[in-house]
């Protein structure tokens, strides 16, 4: 802050006795952003608390050119450079008045601070800072907090990367183990189909059966060799099945053959339990279901796996409302990423033992063969609900898998009703009727709507609120459900 006592002729003919200038620039290392600058005046004989505000500039009033009690005032404000100038024409103001300049600013740590300077008749200025926080210890504390926050962010980023890498590794192992499970299920199916057929009447016919079984099993175990080292114990157990089959070729009668078949079945069951952590521990109870094509039969039990000939397996719900359901979608753990492209949703992804999407092509193939109903099972906030729709179907890929369904009944609310006759969209194939890409905004492939993107989106980002997670508005509003399962049953 300066007081220039030089004379200057102002427009209109007045002559100054002095000019008071208050200047703050962004070159100050302590300063990041200027908020406001104010000049005040106190006359001779007035105490320090009797100051009168002359003028101020800020973001709300960045430019000033005015008169204050006959004093011309000019000022400009910006975040980095701010100036106020008073053109004094009264000798008393130049000789005895005191002026102060207050500057409010944001420092390099984001703290709001204030500094002030005073100048009197001698032209000398005194400056002081009023800071918030006002002590050096507070300033140091703020720096420590900022550093700690940066370290925590770095640690979190490293943890996220590690989790992503582990999840990627788990997905790779899951896919490979799934292939092994499918292959072994086919072995079980074919062995049971041969073993439970007509009685072997001669040694020659039995030899043919056993040779065929050995050949099939050998081909399966050749394919298993691509698995990584951490599943070698599974391969070792599997190879014992071949040994049993080979041993059965030599010298046996019908009784021996029956015992051998029982032993083989037990061995395969053990392998399946190792591969799927018990998910298929009821193979014997449902072995007739393994070769019955593209439908789930109504029977006792919970969830079972059906392996049609030369097709990927299905997951069947054999308990809900009498059973007979084919599960087409499940979210239960959040371990599978559902923010995927068109081809992934077309072909299907995930694991039948965890979260998965069956695949639009397979859903279309099923629903195009007859009338199906859809059941949606949900859990949220320790409560369960369901929605049931009749006449459910989706079109082919040429129609972008257009969604069709009939009447609603249930306890979850008709949140899918908004989506009737909509086309399926993914982030790389935008088929909704809005300007925005709804699949991009809500992190998953779905049948998005027209006026708004959705009232339900069970393929959204796991645990995300504000409609971005797997929500069902009639049940959880904009909050994510903790479990969802979509399943269809032939009417």
From TrEMBL:
Coiled coil spans: 152-179
Signal peptide: none
CC terms in the record's Gene Ontology section: extracellular space
Biased composition (Polar residues): 125-138
Database matches in SUPFAM superfamilies: Fibrinogen C-terminal domain-like
Transmembrane residue ranges: none
Pfam families xref list: Fibrinogen_C (PF00147)
Listed name of the protein: Tenascin-R
CDD domains per record: FReD
Chain positions covered by the region annotation Disordered: 37-61, 113-138
Keyword Coiled coil (UniProt): yes
InterPro entries on file: Fibrinogen-like_C, Fibrinogen_a/b/g_C_1, Fibrinogen_a/b/g_C_dom, Fibrinogen_C-term_domain
Keywords of this entry: Coiled coil
Domain Fibrinogen C-terminal: 287-491
């Amino acid at each position: 802050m300066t007081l220039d006592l030089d004379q200057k002729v102002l427009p209109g003919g007045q002559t100054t006795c002095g000019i008071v200038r208050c200047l703050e620039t962004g070159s100050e290392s302590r300063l990041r952003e200027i908020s406001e600058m104010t000049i005040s005046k106190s006359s001779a004989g007035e105490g320090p608390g009797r100051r009168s505000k002359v003028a101020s500039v800020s973001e709300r009033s960045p430019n000033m050119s005015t008169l204050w009690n006959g004093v011309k005032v000019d000022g400009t404000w910006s975040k980095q450079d701010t100036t106020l100038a008073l053109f004094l024409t009264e000798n008393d103001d130049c000789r005895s008045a005191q002026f102060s300049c207050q500057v409010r600013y944001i420092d390099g740590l984001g703290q709001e601070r204030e500094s002030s300077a005073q100048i009197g008749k001698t032209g000398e200025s005194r400056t002081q800072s009023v800071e918030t926080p006002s002590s050096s210890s507070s300033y140091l504390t703020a720096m420590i907090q900022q550093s700690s926050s940066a370290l925590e962010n770095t640690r979190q980023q490293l943890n996220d990367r590690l989790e992503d890498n582990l999840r990627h590794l788990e997905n790779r192992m899951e896919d490979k183990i799934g292939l092994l499970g499918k292959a072994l299920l086919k072995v079980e199916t074919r062995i049971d189909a041969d073993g439970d057929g007509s009685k072997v009447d001669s040694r020659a016919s039995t030899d043919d059966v056993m040779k065929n079984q050995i050949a099939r099993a050998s081909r399966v175990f050749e394919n298993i060799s691509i698995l990584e080292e951490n599943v070698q114990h599974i391969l070792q157990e599997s190879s014992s099945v071949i040994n049993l089959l080979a041993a059965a070729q030599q010298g046996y009668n019908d009784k021996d053959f029956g015992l051998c078949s029982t032993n083989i079945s037990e061995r395969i069951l053990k392998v399946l339990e190792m591969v799927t952590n018990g998910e298929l521990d009821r193979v014997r109870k449902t072995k007739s279901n393994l070769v019955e094509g593209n439908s789930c039969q109504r029977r006792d039990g919970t969830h079972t796996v059906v392996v049609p000939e030369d097709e990927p397996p299905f997951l069947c719900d054999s308990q809900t409302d009498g059973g007979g359901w084919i599960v087409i979608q499940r979210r239960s753990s959040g371990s599978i990423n559902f923010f995927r492209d068109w081809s992934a949703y077309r072909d299907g992804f995930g694991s039948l033992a965890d979260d998965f999407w069956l695949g639009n092509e397979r859903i279309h193939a099923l629903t195009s063969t007859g009338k199906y109903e859809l059941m949606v099972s949900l859990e949220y906030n320790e409560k369960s609900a369901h929605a049931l729709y009749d006449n459910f179907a989706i079109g082919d890929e040429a129609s972008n898998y257009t969604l069709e369904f009939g009447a609603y009944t249930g306890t979850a609310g008709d949140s899918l009703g908004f989506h009737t006759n909509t086309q399926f969209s993914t982030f790389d194939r935008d088929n909704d009727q809005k300007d925005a890409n709804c699949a991009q905004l809500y992190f998953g492939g779905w049948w998005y709507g027209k006026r708004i993107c959705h009232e339900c989106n069970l393929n959204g980002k796991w645990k995300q609120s504000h409609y971005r997670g797997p929500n069902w508005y009639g049940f959880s509003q904009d909050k994510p459900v903790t479990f969802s399962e979509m399943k269809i049953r032939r009417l």
